[in-house]
Amino acid sequence: MFNKDSMPSHFKVKEYCPLVFKNLRDRFGIDDNQYMLSLTRHIRACDSPGKSGARMFLSHDKRYFVKTLVSEEVEMMHHILKQYHQYVVECHAQTLLPQYLGMYRLTVNDVETYMVVMRNVFSPRLPIHKKYDLKGSTVDRQASEKEKAKELPTLKDNDFVNDGAVINIGPKEKDRILNILQKDVEFLSSLHIMDYSLIVGIHDATREDMQQRNSFPVPADEEDDEEEEGPYEEQSEEVVEEEENGLGGEEECGDVGVPTPPDSPQPTTPMVPFCGELDGELERFAVRSTEGSGKQEIYFMALIDVLTKYSMKKRTAQAAKTVKHGAGAEISTVRPDQYARRFLDFISKCME
């Protein structure tokens, strides 16, 4: 968002509930040093197909997403954080919910931006060849022509059906995934949350092998011409304010002047190349296709967009869509319990 050439002379950063998010990172197996190093190098903006207008950024090592939050999402994060933390503890982090790792407020020239850091659902070292956003609804649930023109479009429910797509993971893995999803959506329903999606990313190993065979190695002298972007040179002093239960604790950085840059960049651990074995940290949400499916695919699946409450605004939208499409139409805006049942039924049919 800012780099060493465009960093403002005065800004503030506030970290919300640092003890809670520290505990969440521990339970999700996130090393704090790696987390810090990932986010203190240049992050890059990436495509965000949602309607909220939120901006998405990807850490330099592709391990984490930084997403800006609109006011309703900020309110919802504060509302559900205590229950979310308790749920993660009780299920021993065996969940497909978004892995929220930190929440911050950045103030620059009196303009406030709220953001949350999440673990990347996809692998930082394996390319995704196809991507679906599935809600279990059929009304207006196909990617636009503009979206389909992108290099990696986010396809939707009707596209999945029309493509004849199947998530070939076998009965054992299907039962395991559906069991986790069942508990997750029951938790979301208890908080009156709906309109979430299952993001499905597909890595096609056969296609990857063909691309590698058709590619030519880059001469060593050309590789040396590209320099790796260094970390931010600016640093700030931190004043930590923590309450005993962690839910009210906040960490705030004061105004920043022009600090002395470090002598050298912080060391980073090089990412191990993929050699066929899935890594529990880098491919946390990965499931292989079954041997009998005739495919060599790796599926990455998790829930996203879980901060929408079934509010009066959503009730009004449901009434309007029902009038437009008819009472029997599979619209996306329905009661949380109805949404959960339909969602699970559709996802179950997507898997074999």
Automatic annotation (TrEMBL):
Listed Acidic residues bias regions: 220-254
PANTHER family listed in its UniProt record: PHOSPHATIDYLINOSITOL 5-PHOSPHATE 4-KINASE, ISOFORM A, PHOSPHATIDYLINOSITOL-4-PHOSPHATE 5-KINASE
Gene Ontology molecular function: 1-phosphatidylinositol-4-phosphate 5-kinase activity; 1-phosphatidylinositol-5-phosphate 4-kinase activity; ATP binding
Keywords noted in UniProt: ATP-binding, Kinase, Nucleotide-binding, Transferase
SUPFAM superfamilies, sorted: SAICAR synthase-like
Limits of the PIPK domain: 1-351
Domain of life of the organism encoding this protein: Eukaryota
Pfam family, one: PIP5K
InterPro entries (UniProt xref): PInositol-4-P-4/5-kinase_C_sf, PInositol-4-P-4/5-kinase_core, PInositol-4-P-5-kinase_N, PInositol-4/5-P-5/4-kinase
CDD domains the record matches: PIPKc_PIP5KII (cd17305)
GO biological process, one term: phosphatidylinositol phosphate biosynthetic process
One GO term describing the cellular component: plasma membrane
Start and end residues of each stretch annotated as Disordered: 216-267
This protein's name: PIPK domain-containing protein
Record's signal peptide: none
Organism whose genome encodes this protein: Pomacea canaliculata
